[in-house]
Each structure stands twice: as C-alpha cells, then as structure tokens.
C-alpha cells in the first residue's frame, strides 16, 4: 500500500507551504527527502542541510515567494476516501481554490455551476448532513411580479462518492417552465498541484453517454446526467434541460462523476463496511450525543483498505491534506477507538506489520515513518520510532478488549520484533536514544518506550514467549533514572524537561508532549502500568497541565503560553492539538486529578460545539474569552483521524472502562465528579459483544449490557 493518496499525506503535522521555486515531482508532489535503503524516509537530513520547521519530511523552503495553502478551514469537506468533495458555503463549484470532486488525490470535476432561468441561485443555507454528504439550499426569482418571495427553491445534495442531486421545487402558485443549465469543467489536476497554485487550464470536453467527458494522459473523467439533458454543448461544457414544474411540484436531476483510466498498482480503496460499533451517547449534556456520532462518522469516512488485502483497513491521517495513512497516527487512533471494537486495530496492525523492516542491522524490526516537526526548540523527530513503540502497546491493549487469541498469535511475532528493536536500540544504556546521530533524548519518547516495555512484557509473559523479565528490568532502570535525568527542580515544584541533549543539557520548555507521561497503559485485571513519575511529580505535572499557561480554556496548548517561541498557531508551538488534550484528560482522570481533567474536558467539549462537532486536528491556542469561539488553524485537517478518535477517548474516559477479557473481567474507574452530569454510552464493543455503561450524576458507574461471562472487577 502506498503511503499516500495525496501528495500531502505524511506522518507529520501540516502540509508544507511552498513557493514557485520549490521543486515539484512530475505528479506535483514536493521533491522527496533523502531516503534510507529500501525506500524508507530518512530519519535525519543529509549532511549540511538545516532542519526546517513544518513538514514531516525536511524540505528546503524558498526564502521568498512563499505561497500559502488554499484556505480549507471554512470549506465543507465531504469525505468517503478515496473520494472527496470540497465546497464553499455558496454551493456552486467555480473551479477556484480547492473546490471540486476528487478521487484518489486527483480533481475529477472542478466546476459545477447551476443556473435556473438564466440566474444563479441565491445561497441561503449550506451544511454537512453526514461525513460524506453536504446539503446546499438556494432560491431563484423567476417571475418579475412575484414580489420578494422566491419562485423556485434549489436544493443540492453533494456526496464524496461523486454524486450530486439537484432538486428544484416550485414554490409559486402557478406552473413554471424553467430552462436549467449546468456548466461543468475540470483540469484533472492533482491536489499537490492545486495547493501549490500550479494547475493548468480546463480541459476540452466531449459529449459522452448523456453527459461530458474529459481526457488527459493520466486518466479520464466523465459526468453522466440522469435524466439525460435535452442538449449538451461540449465547447462550453454545458448541459441543458427544459423542465415543467406544476405549482408545488418537484423535479430532480442526478450528476454522476467518475474517474476512468488505469488504476495505480497498490492504490488504496474505500472500506466497504463499517469497522465500528454503532455507539451512541446520551445524558444531561446535549453535546455528548452529536460529538460521538460525528466522530464515528468521520472515522468511517477516513477508512482505507488495500485491494491486495481487502480485509485489512486503516485510517488515513485526515482530509484534505493527508488522505493517506500515517503509521504513528493510524496506531494512535486505533488505540483510542478500542471501545468501538478491535477490527480497526487488527487491520492497522496487519497492514503495518507488512511494512516492518527486516534483515540485519540496527533498524531491523522498525516500522518506517518519515520525520516529523517537533517545534522551535527541538529538531524533527522520527515518526517511525513512535509507530514502532505503539505497535506492541496496541496489540496488548486490543487483547484486553477482546482480540481473539488466533489474531493475537498471528501479530505477536511483529510485536516481538518491535520490542527486540527497542532493546537493541537502547543497548547498554538506560534511555532510548534519538535515531538522528547526535539528536536529543526526548522526554515523550522515553514515556512511549517505558509503556511499550511494560505492556510488551505483560503480553509476552501471558503468551508464553521469552523476553518479558528483561523488558521489565530495563523499564525499572529507566524509571529510576528518569527523575534524575529529566526532572528540573525549582521552587514551584519542578517540571519535566522536553528533552536532554547528548552533552547533558536539559531543554526546559513545557509542552503538551508531557501529557504522555500520564498515559501509562492497561495491564491485566484493570490495573494501570506504573508511569515514569512518582506520586509527588505526577501531582506537580497535573498542576502544570491544569494551569492557564497550558490550559487555553479550549484544550491543552502544544507549548506553554509563557514559554519562549510560543505561537498560538504553532502546530508544535502553542496550538491546541485535540489528541494530546484527550490523552491528558484520560491520564489525569486515571491518576485521580479530576479537577484538572474536568477543566480540559469541558474546554474540549466547548471547542467541539464551536466546530460543529467535527474536531480539527489542531486549532489556535488563544485563551478562551466569554462569548468567544476558538480560532481555526488554516492548515489543519478536518476531519482528522486522531481528532475523531480523541472524541471517543474523551467520552469513554468519563466512565473509565478497564477490561481484561482474557481474565473475564471488566473494571470501571469513573470520574466521580461527573463533570458532564449523567452520561450513558451504549453500543460499545467488548469481547466481541455489545457493551453499555452508565455514569450517574453522583459519579457512580454501572454496566448495563455486556458479553456473557464477563464479571465486574474490583
């Protein structure tokens, strides 16, 4: 499976801005960064090249002539990958900016403009109906003596699958004869070319099969109309109808857009069936119901499957910029959605196991991933490191949620290779080093490694495999050394360092990555793995994360507001990343710091409401003001896999479900403060069966539905 269906799909945080002088590949994608043997993106830049903040792969950006990405934060984006439909609130597709229908990263229709009786409808409403569907309503005055009331209501239903239904309703008291025209056009450009502003002119159309067709060397695109138009003008890209509408009558037309031409080898396709449980949320807070519903819809819309392995699906990173899978984010999202079932976890693990590096060498067992920007204070990190550490964690926790033993045994060798890579990389040392020569020891990666070692050891022991005691011994050594090597003492109680350089200097800046110190992982019988911090330092970190410098009122900032180089729009320098907010909420709640967890949770719910419950991957970390709304980040993906999965984690953290299906138990550790009042989660999946749980206003949790044989743990 290729790593992207879009030139901007990568395991980083945002697509790069580029200017006219940035070299482009023949497909319009940015020139590839240096690759390691086997085609794996390099984890370090070539000698002599500086690090560049922003993209996942290090690109040398031009100092002048930088072109911003087309705005997408106000767009209505219908997603059913590999299909997209991007529109403005006007409904008409004019061919400007990102507007159009897309298939596998190529724009198959850029212009679709409707005129009724020679007039364009006046837009009165535009809204998302579902993750893959948008509805636009406009009105048209046809009769000059009709007064202020419109004669015709034009409704358009646009879907990511390439279907647009145009419905005309006669609101007048007499019948109308209406000429209807639809102007169509396309450039068959790839998304990378569109984003860089280097698309060509529209292609010439030919009349074909009750519609129009466009052809270029890289494929064809066609639009078929039902019912067939009365006239089709290829030179103008125009379809015409003459419609008779009785008083109060309705007529509709369907336009079906398809892309023809040779299919790329290994191209991804849409997941045919839903992998997620039909989960529902209800309760005192009216926001929980639409949030969970929208998150599940967005997750389903972002699913991709590999035609070579059609039973395996994983999540794309996000739309519109990152419509291909990103290993670390795919694993993180699958882990947060375990309450919806284990099928996504299985597909993700199988898919990434096929990419795992083999053979001799220090990289053997690693899941490859590109570089990812780490903000102003650190060089880019290797996303493959995080993915490799997440692999055994996801497998171990999926087993707790009911992953069948057969599939656990199938995936266990890949997890063993990940853990072997961890031990080999650490060697005789205590801390996990950065794969970049001379790179810093990152605090966040120590947390990922410690969790992988403990959960991996638990998995190996229970499956009768060797290696568990050695992993636990190293994890204990890391825990003992972490306080001395990564904790900065001061009069306020101290803080964890973001990193430690190879010469022993600490990078003191506090960011959202510290939240991963609270994410310890799930062991057997509902127990949590011990973290890197003791109780005193955990309490201090909870205080820091709940303070105004980190809690923006909308969620957790990526960098504290009082830190050097803070930027509320910096994707690793101050913006709110909803994934890290959810990790912090779950970790704080599990550690017993419900006040801080409740503050972040309520802020995230308020942000979700402001964004219509389709959470972007990030937004500005500006402080919340009374009556204000969060500021969108112009380069953020929306929907995004980790953001949608984070919504699931935010709500399930309230009830604190800790399952251990192999032991036949499930334990509840709810937030006793019940920050959103009563909440009922139904239709979750545990042990392959429906699972429902209720949290009362008094903070008491009870299981209402569960698989036969499960017992409530203590």
List the helices and strands and how they pair.
Blueprint: E1 76-80, E2 83-87, E3 93-94, E4 100-103, E5 106-109, E6 111-116, E7 122-130, E8 133-140, E9 152-159, E10 163-170, E11 176-185, H1 191-195, E12 205-207, E13 211-216, E14 219-226, E15 231-233, E16 238-245, E17 250-260, E18 269-270, E19 280-283, H2 288-301, E20 303-306, E21 309-318, E22 322-325, H3 327-336, H4 343-353, E23 371-372, E24 381-382, H5 383-400, H6 405-426, E25 441-442, H7 443-462, H8 468-486, E26 487-488, E27 495-496, E28 499-500, E29 506-507, H9 535-546, E30 576-577, H10 578-591, H11 594-610, E31 618-619, H12 641-652, E32 657-660, E33 665-668, E34 679-686, E35 689-695, E36 701-705, E37 711-712
Helix pairs in contact: 2-12, 3-4, 3-5, 3-12, 4-6, 5-6, 5-7, 6-7, 7-8, 9-11, 10-11, 10-12
